[in-house]
Specification:
78 residues, mainly beta, five-stranded antiparallel sheet, 1 helix
């Protein structure tokens, strides 16, 4: 279960930088009402998946680029 991804970023490509270094993503189910994402993935080592992460998003504006960082919480179950 992943918490902390803003609803405007609920799409599969946002999960890649968070999870691909640790596991292979099979499916992802975003729930906008709870602000969570349930992921079905495979990994060799469940403990290798961090419990906290950061998701940095670049917003392009007329006066330049602003980067916002969102704290992400990951919970795993076997």
């Amino acid at each position: 279960m992943i918490e902390g991804i803003p609803p405007q970023l609920f799409f599969y490509d946002c999960l890649k930088p968070l999870l691909l270094p640790y596991c292979g993503i099979r499916t992802a189910d975003f729930d906008k009402s709870t602000g969570t994402c349930k992921v079905n993935a495979y990994t060799k080592n469940l403990q290798s998946i961090p419990t906290e992460h950061q998701l940095g998003i670049h917003y392009h504006r007329l006066d330049g680029v602003t980067t916002h960082t969102f704290p992400i919480t990951l919970a795993t179950t076997p």
